[in-house]
Amino acid sequence: MAEQMNTSVRADNGKEGRAERPSERSRRVAEARASFRAIRLPYPRQDELVAALDELRLTGQLSKGQTQGGVRLIANTGSGKTVGAERFKAYVEAADEHAPGSQPVVIATVDGSGTTRSIPASILKAMGVPRPEHGAEPVLWMRAFDALERYETQLLIIDEFNRAARRPTMSSAIATALRDVMDRGIVPMAFLATEEARDVFKRSPDLAGRLDAPVTMEPLDWLVEEDRELFLGFVSGLDGELVDRGILRLSSGLAEEALARLLCEASNGNLRQLCRVIETALAAAVRRDDAAIGREDLADAVDDWSIANHCIAYNPFRAK
To answer: In this predicted structure, what is the pLDDT of residue 16?
Structure first.
């Protein structure tokens, strides 16, 4: 939405009555955005992922040298897969039971090339090994195996595994290569992906057959009581953090049911979309130096972010 370009006057900037410079306002908004993005809230669906990953890791520790297992989580973009994996990594690394310099959990993100060579290179890059793309594919795999053993890795998480589906001629070869990692007993593996990856698993029954029951992380449905309670708890936590961190001065009432229902609908029950809507509304409120996010801020945010990014075709806040 267009905003007025008038320069505001702030009385709390240490220079009573001095007009706030545009650069100062920009810094306030940037700081508010950065503080908002630093918020980390507990989320039960992520707890289920963390538990599944830890069970897989511990099972691997008790069966070293044997064929290792794996697990997959297929969910929409923005459902919290990667954040959950990062939470798990931090949780494991915080435990005082690992040798200095070890990397008990490695999260390797598949790059966009979708080649078998890109997988070991992604693993080496995630582990901070110098020149991760140096060498032919067999050499890269040998280097990756050596790094996983040298750094005593207990669980390898392959993020964005759906990218393996972009080149159907390569996806089966990628799945076979990763299956061989488990068959060699090197490390158990977890696969985080969107729906595209289902085709990879269908074409690779040998890999799918080695995996535990899938972990699910579906979008939240306001009409389902459990989902509604999860959503209300999450937005309540965000609202509280905005005040506790000094980003806003007053609660915005985000957990009020009427408002929360519209937020859930506008975000499709997707946490990433929800956070982008709230952050966009937050920026508008901070630009005006308002104490809290208003309903119109949220309505404008749905127009400016959700509809503009084709996440939703209408604005629940403006529906009659």
So the answer is: 55
